[in-house]
Amino acid sequence: MRIAIKMGGDLLKGESLNTPLLEDLKSVAKEHSIIIVHGGGDLVTEMAKRLGKEQVFVISPEGFKSRFTDRETADIYAMVMAGEISTKIVGTLQSFGINAVGLSGFDGGLLRAERKKRLVVVGDQGRKMAIDGGYTGKIVSVNGRLLEALMKEGYTPVVSPLAMGLENEPLNVDGDRTTAAVAAAVKTDVILYLTDVSGVLKDGKVIGKISALDVEGLLKEIGPGMSTKIHAAVEGIRGGVGKAIITSGLTERPLTGALEGRCGTVISL
Amino acid sequence: MKLKCPECDGDIEVKEVIEGEIISCKDCGAELEASKDKNGNFELKVAESEGEDWGE
Fold first, then answer.
1. How far apart are CA B56 and CA B42, in angstroms?
2. Quick one: CA dihedral A114, A115, A121, A127, positive or negative?
3. How far apart are CA A56 and CA A119, in angstroms?
4. pLDDT tens digits, residue range A223-242?
């Protein structure tokens, strides 16, 4: 089986990664081909602050809060994502006997993206304003052959959500959607979105199953973070992925539990 | 101030507008961005906006 795993930023904070997760990863990697995509937006914000670059956040009319990525921020973003976070994950996986390879979207032309021209945000006095899209992008192609070649040789690709723009500029791309694009490119059987909550919650309870054909109504009832994951999961499934599971990465054997259907929220056709 | 909708050619009356502001046409529902022409006068163009995926 092929599995794409998104490791959310909440799992990456602190000196080391969650040991039960790593033990489970090692066990699953023995039997299956794995691709990991990581997040880590909060770590970008921390580093930018240390470098004296205050981050600007904007809010969409639908209430989503997002970083405004200007060129300087894009450089810091690349430094943290493809440097600090990627080496931390790859080093940890290597120490657990998993032969991981760190890749940003630049390596082998893995992720190509188009810059967003305009973003609509809520400005002063609640006015809707169009602003420059900055250095954020929408993925237009994934070099699946590179991932196939690495997996065939027994490597575990670790992909940073940093894409190469059409003018070779660094672009900030969403990690959840990067996972979906990567998974669709190599037709994984499943995407596991590992986060810090047990799944998609409604009235305090985990929803066991969501149909990818009928998510619009649900999206109005859940928070923005989960909404992005569900959108991404649906994109992955439309691209040929079997199913997606949103689950906590902070439990004992989180991957095995989700793959055996014992926890998390499953999104499928 | 009276502006023209580039989609349906309808009139749009606004009290004040700032560059980059998004205005909806009441007639056709188009989302329009206020920008300035060469002479510094406001005009409306169809807003180019992207979905919610703005990166990490």
1. 34
2. negative
3. 14
4. 667 888 999 999 999 999 99
Chain B CB within 8 Å of residue A172 CB: yes
Which helix or strand (DSSP H or E) is residue A208 part of?
none
* Predicted confidence (pLDDT) per residue in A180-237, tens digit: 999 999 999 999 999 999 999 988 899 999 999 888 888 877 866 788 899 999 999 9
Residue contact B22–A136, C-beta within 8 A: no
CA gap A250, A159 in Å, rounded: 21
Contact B21 A44 (CB under 8 A): no
Q: Which of A137, A141, A87 has the alpha carbon at shortest distance from A109?
A: A141
Q: Does domain B2-46 have CATH number 3.90.226.10?
A: no
B52 CB neighbours in chain A (<8 A) are 60, 62, 64, 224, 227-228, 231
Chain B residues with CB within 8 Å of chain A CB = 18, 20-22, 31, 33, 47-50, 52-56
What number is the average pLDDT over the span A253-266? 96
Q: Residue B53: which of A44, A130, A138 has the nearest Cβ?
A: A138
C-alpha distance from B24 to closest chain A C-alpha (Å): 10
pLDDT reported for residue B50: 63
Q: At A192, list the tokens.
A: 């596991």
With 0-12 / 13-18 / 19 or more C-beta atoms within 10 angstroms meaning exposed / middle / buried, residue A108 is: middle
Select from A181, A255, A247 the least CA-distant residue to A28.
Answer: A255
Please answer yes or no on whether A137 and B55 come within 8 Å at the CB atom. yes
CATH number at residue A205: 3.40.1160.10
Total domain count, chain A: 1
- Domain spans of chain B? 2-46
Domain holding A189, by residue range, is 2-268
Q: Per-residue pLDDT for A63 more than 80? A: no
Q: pTM, whole model, 2 decimals? A: 0.89
- Report pLDDT for A218: 84
